[in-house]
Amino acid sequence: MNNNVEPSAKILVVDDDSDVRDIVERCLVDAGYKVWTCGEGGVVLDLIQEHNINLAIVDLVLPDTDGLTLTRSLKEHSTIGVIILSGRGDTTEKIIGLEIGADDYLAKPFEPRELLARVRSVLRRLVQSSPTASTAETTAFTFEGWSLDISARTLTSPEGQPIELSSGEFNLLKAFVEHPNRVLSRDQLLDFTHANDTPAFDRSVDVRVGRVRKKIEPDPQNPQFIKTIRNSGYMFAANVNRN
Hints:
Order of helices and strands: EHEHEHEHEHEEEEHEHHEEE
Distance between the termini: 25 Å
């Protein structure tokens, strides 16, 4: 997918409620975006490939799948942005959505202006993280024998073993290696990992940090890489080389 997003970005709205699809489509079209809509998840990947979609707005409840499963699939098979749109207000479900790679989460009912603001925010972040961005000149980072390949989105241990990372875990580790030996607040990490602009999701950062520690730290209970800085956030305390 091409994430060099122009003002006329291409957006796919996936919702089984035709009224919601119409409201979202009208809001986005009026703002200058090109919009496609569908009511089920089974056709989404084909539509993304056919129309070179930049961003998908996905409902959690679909007739043939659930939005979390669809979001995970989109993040595994494409590089588009994903905003989850849901009538469920459960905080745990929001965190799960962000953990599996969603770029934002908006509950129904919603104000069209808020949806539009979140769409613009995600599209801006997609541009900043695209291959044309200056940070993309670095293709890999190494630290203490570990190697994080940015283009392949892989992590390799000092023993040469591939370590599986979720999209959220990869983005978090990428943020750390790009800003080593610097204290990063939870808000900054949320922004760097394209998770959400809202401080209410601070806990999702802590969850991700815990999971990454289990994968890279010799002793996750006494971390030597990802240090907790009391009342401030976290710091990646390692010598990082850019390749």
